[in-house]
Amino acid sequence: MNLDANNLNNIVSLIMKELDKNNNIDDTGQGCGGEEGKNGIFSSMDTAVSKAKEAQVTLFASKLELRERIIKAIREDVREAAAELAEIAVEETGMGRVDDKTLKHYVTVDKTPGVEDLRAFAYSGDNGLTVMELSPYGVIGSITPSTNPSETIVCNAIGMIAAGNSVVFAPHPGAKKTSLRAVEILNKAVARAGGPNNLVVTIFEPSIENTNKMVKNPDIKMVVATGGPGVVKSVMSSGKKAIGAGAGNPPVLVDETADIEKAAKDIVNGCSFDNNLPCITEKEVVAVDSITDYLIFEMQKNGAYLVQDSKTIKKLCEMVINDGSPNRAYVGKNASYILKDLGIDVGDEIKVIIVETDAGHPLAVLEMLMPVLPIVRVKDALEGIKVCKKLEDGLRHTAMIHSKNIDILTKYARDMETTILVKNGPSYSGIGVGGEGYTTFTIAGPTGEGLTSAKSFARNRRCALVGGLSIK
Ligand code: NAD
């Protein structure tokens, strides 16, 4: 064979392509094995935003009926993929429980409000008819967590599309695979319903750098952050309309009037749900002294393991707290896994580790995000309210109480100032699981939208028709 320079170049190029294929890099060079732009996933954040902008223009020009069809398809397809998404998330992040995560997807598709959430309001009189309507922002940038990765993406997508927006997701890098799969499923559902391409987009390589790029892009008209204090602070100082759904440290108060058997069961079930990852789950128990022993006894009957001796408590704390923060190695892990590292072998029937502490103990003060539940004794319910308020630390997120005393229930609800307050039930009743009301995975305490839904992702606009149309 006669090898001239051109031939050589061609051969080198063929070899490079073959190597790239083996390294899972395709022609677009995004390095993740996917096809550029297919199913809403791009290599560049700016491209993702500009494609989402085009899609939003098409959506806004279409009938509301299209949005309804898209949301129906999303509900159907995510329901179908719920277990798959749950499995990928547990495998990828090493956190949580597949069954609970599957349930979280079902709740998301069944109970996240759609277009019906956008209610109009009218003023009418001698001067005419004025209508207040909820109109889209345009392209929304949504930053999502590692703890509920695909649940948050699906829940946000339903609400944001219902309100007429497109959405660019900036997922947690540690939940990249799960998040990209969720975006892929959403895009297929939108296409199946006849919606525009790229209504829901993301990028192949999520990173803080790319997230910041998204926030700064002038075509992003609203930023929604679901995560810890760092990201909430960052979006609130972005100079854009921001929704911040931040950390919590939900206490549960149990007084002497409560149904103790039920309280014990609810607390174990709530605290262990998805291994304590949801921001709303019981993170510490504050119990009136006269019923604390019985509460602990009942919790033990329902899957709690009591760690009692001071040496083991010390070892547990050294394990799960690292430099004053929860040790990531134990975040979202099964109670049996944590106990095994403590030298205690138990079966999966043990869902929560309980330990008595004082109110200032790091296990009580920190948002641990694992099924290790401190129990703090107080002399009465009034002292309990003060302790719970201190532990919630002004986050205004979530709190629970088990009591039949109306005065205590009322005082607790008023004093705690939380976005969610659950009375006589497990924490998850506060997001519509076994409690009334719709579901969300973006609970915006810091910016005040509360449990977000389509109306939170829409602008309030007024159209005044002067001098007519009123038929009063
Ligand atoms: P995290 O704060 O580590 O990450 C959340 C998202 O923010 C990720 O996409 C991450 O990449 C991004 N991020 C983090 N710091 C950033 C910064 N400085 N600038 C830009 N982007 C940044 O949170 P996590 O560990 O994934 O999730 C757990 C936390 O989220 C807990 O504190 C939990 O309470 C909270 N959370 C709150 C809600 C709610 O609705 N209020 C829901 C879920 C989780």
From TrEMBL:
Gene3D superfamilies: Aldehyde Dehydrogenase, Chain A, domain 1, Aldehyde Dehydrogenase, Chain A, domain 2. Coiled coil: none annotated. Keywords: NAD, Oxidoreductase, Plasmid. GO terms for molecular function: acetaldehyde dehydrogenase (acetylating) activity. It comes from the Bacteria. Residues 45-302 form the Aldehyde dehydrogenase domain. This is Aldehyde Dehydrogenase.
